[in-house]
Automatic annotation (TrEMBL):
Keywords: Coiled coil
InterPro entries the UniProt entry points to: Thf1 (IPR017499)
Domain of life: Eukaryota
Protein name: Uncharacterized protein
Length: 87
C-alpha cells in the first residue's frame, strides 16, 4: 500500500482507526470499474476527511496525511481541494 510509504510517522489510535477505514473506502471506490471523478465525489471526500480529522494535534501533519491519503490511490490532493473551493 502506498499510504505507509508517503506518511511514516505514527498516527494516534483514535485517528488511525478512522483513517484506515477511509483509506479502504477510497480504495474500493477508486478501483471500482464504474468510478468517475467528479466535484461531488471530491466534496464528500474532503468534507469527511476534514470533519473526522478536525481535532488532530498538528495542522501540518493533518495536511500531510491528507496528501498521503489521496495520493495512495494515485489521485491529486490539490485537485480535490480545488474542486471543493469551486462549490
Amino acid at each position: 500500500m502506498e499510504f505507509p510509504k508517503a506518511y511514516k510517522r505514527p498516527i494516534p489510535r483514535i485517528y488511525n482507526n478512522v483513517l484506515q477505514e477511509l483509506i479502504v473506502q477510497q480504495h474500493l471506490m477508486r478501483y471500482k470499474r464504474t468510478y468517475r471523478y467528479d466535484a461531488v465525489f471530491a466534496l464528500g471526500l474532503v468534507t469527511a476527511y476534514d470533519q473526522l480529522m478536525e481535532g488532530y494535534p498538528s495542522d501540518e501533519d493533518r495536511d500531510t496525511i491528507f496528501k498521503a491519503y489521496t495520493g495512495a490511490p494515485k489521485e491529486d490532493p490539490e485537485k480535490h481541494r480545488s474542486a471543493v473551493m469551486q462549490w
